């Protein structure tokens, strides 16, 4: 015996199904409401500030932007203050200094020559007014994310003093789309290797080689993933406060104590042959790293004489430590997602987890509203 339902119930169920499909479609296509109903940030988060919130004349904001040098901890591969047992076992500080100053020195054999060609170089020109170059590590499939970044925090027309470059490895699946994007925007560095997680160190090195050779007029380079939010104008303020006090700046969220994974089932596995020490040097998380151009150029040189390791942030830290550069921890760089309606958002310089372009666009909209109107801003 079949059960019969009233016509109104059947219509309601049908409408509910349609709405459910629409919601799922909007989620997967990264479209949907432009704002959250509870606003971009709680109005009670911090009262008393208006459009002067981000002024350097505001002592609260200046205090937020202060950064402190990381305390250098014991590094496992130092056998005296200048030499390390991590190959090459040379006085890298003196070696790099002599190279930078053009002094005569004996050059050891390179053990880590960069092996990949640049298929396509971006048509990006840095000038003396270029304060910050964004080098954005991206996967070929993330076309929508790249466009959202172009429209928001890396928009050269809305933020003075910045340039942007996306770095990609080659791919067969998205080849035609990437080729068309290169022709349209001319801001992609395409490198001749198959794009994958375990190629990240090669991606990092290729990105910094291009930046160090082609954008020497800029002051700083920010290496950042394509699922990050960046408060560009606020970061520029912080770099302005830093000035030339740190010519070898290597800054971000610092992991002061991390250990190698020895289980072969781990994504982060590394053998004791490849890395025989029981701890990594303090490293800046690879998602967002700010470096002075001097540091970038020194790294380009020193990396050729440093044994390769598959994890990009660890490799960068090893080279930095061999050069005697201490990572700077920035408390306003977040490795997790900071929602734009969270009270923490107002002083966030970078945050991870913005893989949906709609979220990134909303976060940037919130940032602009906060900048113009202060912390009492709420979405209507």
Task: Give me the secondary-structure category.
Answer: alpha/beta
**What level of helicity do the residues show?**
25-40%
| Total separate domains | 1
Examine the coordinates and then state which fold CATH places here, giving the name of the CATH topology.
Answer: Spore Coat Polysaccharide Biosynthesis Protein SpsA, Chain A
Q: Output the number of helix runs.
A: 10
Mean pLDDT: 86
CATH architectural name: Alpha-Beta Complex
Tell me the series of helices and strands, N- to C-terminal: HHEHEEHEHEHEEHEEHHEEH
Largest sheet: 9 strands, mixed
> Strand sequence of the main sheet, in spatial order?
1-10-8-9-6-3-4-5-2
What coarse outline follows from CA principal-axis ratios? globular
For the record, the CATH class is Alpha Beta
**Radius of gyration over all CA atoms, rounded:** 24 Å
Give the end-to-end Cα distance, rounded to a whole number of Å.
52 Å
Number of strands: 11
Q: How much strand?
A: 15-25%
**Which residues form runs of ≥5 with pLDDT under 50?**
1-5, 18-38, 42-48
Oligomer: single chain
Could you describe the 3D structure shown?
The protein has 380 residues and is of the alpha/beta class. The chain has a single domain (59-369), classed as Spore Coat Polysaccharide Biosynthesis Protein SpsA, Chain A (Alpha-Beta Complex), CATH 3.90.550. Helices cover 32% and strands 15% of the residues. The chain has ten helices and eleven strands. The chain has a nine-stranded mixed sheet with strand order 1-10-8-9-6-3-4-5-2, with helices on both faces. A two-stranded antiparallel ribbon has the order 7-11. The N and C termini lie far apart (52 Å).
């Amino acid at each position: 015996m079949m059960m019969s339902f009233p016509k109104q119930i059947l219509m309601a169920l049908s409408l509910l199904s349609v709405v459910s499909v629409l919601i799922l479609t909007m989620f997967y296509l990264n479209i949907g409401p432009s704002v959250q109903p509870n606003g971009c940030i709680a109005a009670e988060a911090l009262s008393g500030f208006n459009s002067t919130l981000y002024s350097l004349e505001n002592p609260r904001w200046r205090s937020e932007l202060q950064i402190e040098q990381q305390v250098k901890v014991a590094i496992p591969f130092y056998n005296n203050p200048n030499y390390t047992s991590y190959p090459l076992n040379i006085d890298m500080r003196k070696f790099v200094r002599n190279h930078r100053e053009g002094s005569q020195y004996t050059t050891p054999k390179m053990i880590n020559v960069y092996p990949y060609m640049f298929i396509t170089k971006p048509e990006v020109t840095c000038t003396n007014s270029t304060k910050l170059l964004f080098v954005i590590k991206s996967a070929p499939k993330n076309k929508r994310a790249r466009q959202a970044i172009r429209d928001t925090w890396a928009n050269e027309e809305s933020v003075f003093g910045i340039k942007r470059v996306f770095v990609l490895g080659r791919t067969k699946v998205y080849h035609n789309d990437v080729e068309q994007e290169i022709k349209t925007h001319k801001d992609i560095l395409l490198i001749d290797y198959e794009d994958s997680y375990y190629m990240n160190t090669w991606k990092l090195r290729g990105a910094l080689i291009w930046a160090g050779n082609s954008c020497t007029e800029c002051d700083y380079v920010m290496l950042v993933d394509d699922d990050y939010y960046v408060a560009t104008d606020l970061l520029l303020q912080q770099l302005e406060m830093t000035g030339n006090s740190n010519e070898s700046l290597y800054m971000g969220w610092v992991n002061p104590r991390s250990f190698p994974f020895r289980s072969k089932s781990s994504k982060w596995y590394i053998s004791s042959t490849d890395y025989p020490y029981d701890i990594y040097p303090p490293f800046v998380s690879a998602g967002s790293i700010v470096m002075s151009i001097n540091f970038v150029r020194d790294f380009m040189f020193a990396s050729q004489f440093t044994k390769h390791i598959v994890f990009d942030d660890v490799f960068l830290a090893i080279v930095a430590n061999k050069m005697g550069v201490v990572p700077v921890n920035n408390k306003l760089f977040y490795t997790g997602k900071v929602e734009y309606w969270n009270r923490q958002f107002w002083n966030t310089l970078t945050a991870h987890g913005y893989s949906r372009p709609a979220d990134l666009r909303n976060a940037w909209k919130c940032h602009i509203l906060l900048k113009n109107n202060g912390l009492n801003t709420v979405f209507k």
